[in-house]
Each structure stands twice: as C-alpha cells, then as structure tokens.
C-alpha cells in the first residue's frame, strides 16, 4: 500500500471556460490532517467532490490509498468517508434509520451506529424524523454518517458550520483519535483557529490554484507574522499571490 | 441486491410517511375532486356513445401522441432520479455502491410511477367507455410491457437530454429523438392492443408483444451502457443545468407590464419557463399542439361538427358548432399552458426565502403569478383561433368576434388559474387538479354562454383575488398550505 493516503497529481477541473481547479498537486500521509482554506469559489469543494467521485477531473489523477479513483472507484470509496457541504437527507427517516442505511451501504453492521449516535449526542433525537432536526443536528448526523465504517480517509467539507463550541472541541479530539488510528483527513474550513490547531498541514487555495502550503508554523514564517492570528497569515499569503 | 433493497426500502418508507402526513388530501380531497371529474366525464362519455369507433390511423396517431407525452412528461423527474439531483441519494455516489444498483433503484421508482399513472388511466378509461379490452394474462403482459417500455424510454431520454445538453451533439440528440419516436409508436400500438383495438397489419398479438419485448431489451441495454459511460461525467452538469445560460427575452416581455417586485418576479418566472425549468413545459407545448391539431382534424377532415351554413342572425353565430368547438379548444389550450403555474411554484419553493427576505407582499406574489398564468397562456387564443379560421369552418362574418371571444376566454381562464395559484402550493399535483377542474368547467360554461362569464367575472373575480392574495400572504408567512 502507498505511504500516502491521498495523492492528487495535476488535478484540473473546468466549468466551461472557468478553471475551478488549476493543476493542483498534493499528498496527504496516513494519519495526517490537511486543511484546505481559501475564499468562496477558490476550488476547495470542487477538489473534494472530485476526490469522492461526485465530479470528474478534466485532467490529472487522484488516488486514495493507492487506488485510482477512476479505475478503482469502488475500492477507493470503501476507504473514504465524506461530509458534503450541502446536506440532503430523507426528511421522513429517523436519524437512526438513516445511519443504519449508510452502514448497510458501507457493508458494515449496525453496532457502530449506536456508538456514533452517542458520540454526537443524538440519542434524544435518534428516533425522530430528520425533517425536524436543527442545522447543528443535521451536521452531526452528516459527520456520524461520514465516520461510519472506520474509513482510512475522511473528507470533511465545512464540518464546523452549525456546531456549538463544545461539539467543535469534541470533534477536534475525535480527529486526533482517528489520526492515531492512521486515518488521513482533508478538511475545508473558514474557522482559522480550528484549522491552525487541528491540522498538520495547511493548503491555501486561490482561483483554483494552491498558492501556499506547509505546516501552520511554516506558513507563519512565510508570512512573517509571528504571533498574529492565523487569519492574518491567510490574508497575507493569499494577497501575496495576487500581487505576484 | 442487498444494497438495492436498502435504497428502495428507505425511499418507500419516506414516501409512505409522507402519505400518512397528507392523509386528508389523499383520502378526502383527491377522491372528491377525482370523483366529480369522473362523474362529469362518464356523463360526457355516455352522451357520446353514438360516435363511431375512429379509424385505425387516427387511433394509432392519437395513442402514439399520448405515449410521446407520457415519455416527455417523465424526463425531468427521471433525470432527477438517475442523477440524484437534490435527492438524498446524492450521498450514495460517495459510498461503495455500484452504478448499476443506483440505475436499478431509479428505474424501479420510474416503473412504479408509470404503473400508477397508466394503471389508473386504463381503469378509468375502461369504465368510462365500457370498451372491450384484453383479458387475463395477455392484458397484464401488454400493460407490463407498456409500463416497462415507457419507463425505460424516459430513462433513455433523460440520459440523452443531460448528455446532449452538456456535449451539444445535435446528431446524437437527433438519433435519440428517432429512438424515442419509435418507442412512442410501439407504445401507441401496445396501448391499442390493451383495448383490443384491431391492428390491420398484425396477424396476431404475439408479433406485437415479441417486438415490444425485443425493443424493451434493446432500450434497457442501451440505457445500461449509456448510464455506465455518461452518468459519472454528467453528474455535475445535471445539477447545474438550470443555471447556466442568460436570456433577456423575458425581461423585454415584462418591462411594460408591472413595476417593481411584480415585474422582477414575473421576468424571472418567464425566464425559467423559456429555459424549460421542467419537462412539464415540453409537455404543455406538446399538448397545446395536440389541441390545435385536434381542432384542425375535427373541423377540416370530419363531419362531426356541422358547419354553420344558415344563421338566423349575427348574434346566433356564437352558438354555431365550429365557433363553439374553437372556443372550447381555446379553453383547453389556455388551461394546459396556464397549468405550468403550480409546477413553477413547486420548482421555486426551495428559493422562496428570497421573496420573504426581500419583503415581497402576498399581493405582489399573487399578482406576479397571476400575470405569469396570463403571459404564458397568451399564445393559446391566437393559435387556436388561427387554426379554426384556417379550416374555413368559422363563418366569415364571425372571424373577428371569434378572436375576441377567444381572447375573453383566455383572460378569464388564465386569471382564474392564476388566482388559485396559492390554494395548495406545496402539493402541485392536487393543486393542478383543482385549478384545471374549476377553470375548464367555468371556461366551457362561458364558451357556451359568454355573457354568463361577464357576470361571473364582474361579481366573482374580486372575491377570488382577495382570497388568493390572503392565501399567498399566509403562505409567505408560514410556508404551509
């Protein structure tokens, strides 16, 4: 098996004449948390959708744990968990029924469903219809669905939207646990504090290109901003590209 | 197989719970409206019992047209099911589920919907016309074949529509249209066979069933191959199909109609229609063409409608059979085009927060939809009148008044349908039944005695408008029916 859990080579995605992802290459090692940051429309979600097979690249290659997502899409999907930005559920299924469905489709037993429900504090609403869930509950349900099956790669698109502070901390702890198990993460988020504290490496995207990459400390050095908030580091590096 | 069962069971559970949540509409309102429609239709059918059986050519052309409408009416929904556009099944594309399982799940849903539609239609038609039909296994086999053929043609058309739109390959689209036309013709023949209508060039039913079965297998194979080759590349395009072009004709049309919020909403609604927001738009156009051609056939090629050769006075000409036929067809065509309104409202429901956030009032919302119903059905009176006039059946003296009467009917029918737009905005199917029943009934009544319409309009429309505006306001505030 490859040392890298995720390998992206020269990935390019076009929407008509618009270049959404422009020759992006990156690797994520086993047990590494990689955060993608960038403005809206920078190409983060397009890249993530290509990773999970919801979009096809116009050129380039993506491999999950050594499996090419085009040639061995099913094997790649078996190793991947995904939290989409836009959550669509069966409104008249209960949370538990939905998670059981996902577990069934991931060829897993229902045992983990109960664990995830408990972890995400959904016990009290697990037998209620999803249509009555709040945004935060929906997000927790999406996270639980992504983590069912103990995937080796977790791709989380805006996982913090709608979560309360307590759950954000809990999620960060869970990410650490999964990291120790060898799970690789690709996370997109606008919450810079979370990005800095949770990730091993950060990639800054702008207009479809990866304009800066490194550990949070390395990016601070590149931006020459020692103790400033990480948000300033992001702006400095993104603007540097603009002026280049 | 296990995954297919899981997906189908989840969808079925969701649907059944929806049905329990709407038990009043399903058990009380729908049977009431359908029952009234059935009684009216059965009365008309019993009165028309003396009409001779149509020729094979006419019956076959009509059945093929109906089958084409059936196929086209399901294309948009089939595309949404195959590509999981705005469906919870969208998430399954990221899970280890083979594409064929997803295709089977989508196809099973399609078959179920087509079976519901065709099954009900056949039961209604058999009891209305008391026509003979095949019995036993041959009937079931023919019906099953027709359902499967229609569903597979819808899936095929959906795949071709999305792919052709993305790649802009006109030749491929043309090829797809030929295949659909062939399936529609075969489906039409199967329809006739179900009603035991004699088909001159077929020695026995066996040949038809075998050719239907062979075509079904071919179409299913084709759908399987195209799904495997195209779907993964067309997934995103299917989701983005409705927001990729710009068109200013709608803005031009609405520039002088109203001001402010109403004009903006109307421009958007017309823009969506011009971009074919749903396969229902194709269907409405097709049906309107069907009404127009039916009028032409009735007036120009048959003796069913006697011509008004001698009239007692100019005013009597309004009751002459060709004029009445033209007016009734005008009502039907207007109602068909205005029937796009509930579909449009259902289509816009997810983005209605925009109107709420922008502070649009119930009156503005209602007014925009009312104008939409009028604007979208405006071609109907002109087209139907032109067809009627072109046959030469309309009395020469009454050509211009006939146009005025058609315009009057258009205004009344479209206004009534627009006014009822917010009676059941979240249930477009039921809303459509209610709107069509009322508008067509009133339209036909007025087409027979136009002064009645004048009285009804003067005294009734303001009440209906007030109710419509109140319903729109309530819907804006609560989001409920």
In angstroms, what is the radius of gyration of chain A? 18 Å
Secondary-structure element pattern of chain B, one letter each: HHHHHHHHHHHHHHHHHHH
What is the count of DSSP helices of chain A, taking H or I runs of 4+ residues?
Answer: 9
Strand order of the largest sheet of chain A: 6-7-8-3-9-10
Largest interface comes to: A-B, 31 and 29 residues
Q: How many H/I helical runs of chain B? A: 19
Describe the oligomeric state of these chains in a short phrase: heterodimer
Question: What would you call the shape of chain A?
Answer: globular
- Low-pLDDT runs of 5+ residues of chain B are 242-250
Query: What series of H and E elements makes up the topology of chain A?
Result: EEEHEEHEHHHEHEHEEHH
Radius of gyration of chain B over all CA atoms, rounded = 24 Å
Give an overview in words:
- Chain A is of the alpha/beta class and 244 residues long.
- Helix content of chain A is 38%, strand content 26%.
- In chain A, a hairpin with a 2-residue loop joins strand 9 and strand 10.
- The longest helix of chain A is centred in the C-terminal third of the chain and has 17 residues.
- Chain A is globular and about 50 Å long.
- Chain B is mostly helical.
- The longest helix of chain B is centred in the middle third of the chain and has 36 residues.
- Chain B is globular and about 75 Å long.
- The interface between A and B is medium-sized, with 31 and 29 residues.
Short structural description:
The complex is a heterodimer of chains A (244) and B (481). Chain A has 244 residues and is α/β, with parallel strands linked by helices. Chain A is built from nine helices and ten strands.
List its traits:
heterodimer, A: 244 residues, alpha/beta, six-stranded mixed sheet, four-stranded antiparallel sheet, 9 helices, 10 strands, 38% helix, 26% strand, globular, B: 481 residues, mainly alpha, 2 domains, 19 helices
